[in-house]
Amino acid sequence: MPRAERGLLQLRRLKDLIARLSERVPLYREKLRAAGVTPGDIRSLADLARLPFTVKDDFRQTYPYGLLAVRMEEVIRVHASSGTTGKPTVVAYTRQDVDTWSEVMARTLMAGGVGRGDVVHNAYGYGLFTGGLGFHYGAERVGAAVVPMSGGFTDRQLMALRDLGATVLCCTPSYALHLAEAAEEAGLVRGLKLRVGFFGAEPWTEAMRGALETRLNIMALNIYGLSEVIGPGVSVECLERRGMHVAEDHFLPEIVDPRTLEPLPPGATGELVFTTLTKEAMPLLRYRTRDLTTLDAGPCRCGRTLVRIGRITGRTDDMLIIRGVNVYPSQIEHALLQVPDVEPHYLLVLRRDSTLDTLEVQVEARAAIAGAGRDALAALGTIVRRKIHEVVGLTADVSVVPPKTIERSLGKAKRVLDLRHGGS
Ligand code: ADP
Ligand code: ZN
């Protein structure tokens, strides 16, 4: 769809959204009144900047159903966010919402060429988490055969991957790495038919992409979504793999300065904000995701005109400040992936010794060098420490630990253990 035409569609949908929200959701009626905006005030998409924001705390204040814009009888599904940063938020869907979600998930899978004849191994968690059912409905919509594995039971996953002839892998990147290792150990990789993987739900790096593509012999695509907005399906990379195209006929993105909340010019890094244009059950106005990235409205070689978001570099709330240096866990991952003899399984442990903050980076040695003796491991630790200093500008204590000693995630990896406040 040409951009001008889509702009008109978005504007029409935005006006309708404001009318629905001010009529049906007390919280928004109040927010809109406080902002002095009536539905008639919206004349162009630029008026978006006048509208009030929504934050995660609005969900908590109205828990569980206060943000519903339809009667409970219209709701056919409920999910919840994974609660990475606190109490989970509850989200609801009408039949139309589930249909929209399946449609955007179908687009996601089609971006990687998935369709009839494909076998989709879906290792995203089924349940309250949106990943499992989101991919499930999308895979059915494109006519692929879906294997509803959910997370965990790695041996069984390997057996299914091989025996059922999976061509598509869906899971978090950290779990994909775990599967790759297990497949290598079992000597299975060559027997797999995997062609493409859809990885997301947690931050990962270009270096991790390289590792997954080589080890599993696939094309690895980044996907981004969040349950408050709908779940996975909000955006996906095309085969050019230069940013994730946003399904902006349904989810209108903006980038704002996280401190001033002013919209930022194209290309600037800031907080990603979404307005849901078509959602019925829990529509959102300018939802602050707390994820940091950029927007690119320039043309893409794939021919899609949909705006692209860059790799998520972190959450505004997972930035660590260590002795005055701002550090995102993804920067440490980037550094670790440049050292060939360690695996990118890692844990960052923060402590406070008297007044100074310290960062310990635990990282696993590759199986091949694990038996090389203490001196070799200590030397490896020095290399890692130098690399982290070079990339992040911070001196960390590095512990190179034996293979398989850092807990594996089945879904989202837990990378940070912060013992600075209250912990010992
Ligand atoms: P929670 O906020 O509790 O983790 P969700 O399960 O809805 O809830 O997860 C959404 C969040 O996951 C996003 O806000 C973002 O921080 C993270 N995320 C999802 N996909 C990606 C991705 N491709 N890269 C980086 N982070 C991602
Ligand atoms: Zn593209």
Short overview:
With 424 residues, the chain is an alpha/beta fold.
Structure description:
With 424 residues, this protein is an alpha/beta fold. The protein folds into two domains: 93-315, ANL, N-terminal domain (Rossmann fold, 3-Layer(aba) Sandwich); 320-418, 2-Layer Sandwich (GMP Synthetase, Chain A, domain 3). It is built from ten helices and 21 strands. The strands form five sheets. Strands 4-3-5-6-7-8-9-14-13 form a nine-stranded mixed beta sheet. A four-stranded antiparallel beta sheet has the order 10-11-12-15. Strands 20-19-18-21 form a four-stranded mixed beta sheet. Strand 6, helix 8 and strand 7 form a beta-alpha-beta unit. Helix 6 (154-163) crosses helix 7 (173-185) and helix 7 runs parallel beside helix 8. The chain is globular and about 75 Å long. The mean pLDDT is 93. Residues 81-84, 200-203, 222-224, 226-227, 289, 291, 312, 315 line the site of adenosine-5'-diphosphate.
Strand order of the largest sheet: 4-3-5-6-7-8-9-14-13
What is the SS-derived class? alpha/beta
Number of helices: 10
CATH class of the largest domain: Alpha Beta
Tell me the CATH topology of the largest domain.
Answer: Rossmann fold
Main beta sheet: strand number and arrangement? Answer: 9 strands, mixed
Pick out the low-confidence regions: none
Strand content: 25-35%
How many separate domains make up the residues?
Answer: 2
Which geometry do the CA atoms define? globular
Q: What ligands can be seen in this structure?
A: adenosine-5'-diphosphate, zinc ion
Question: CATH superfamily of the largest domain, please?
Answer: ANL, N-terminal domain
How confident is the prediction overall: mean pLDDT? 93
Number of strands: 21
Helix content: 25-40%
Reported CATH architecture of the largest domain: 3-Layer(aba) Sandwich
State the separation between the terminal residues, measured CA to CA: 57 Å
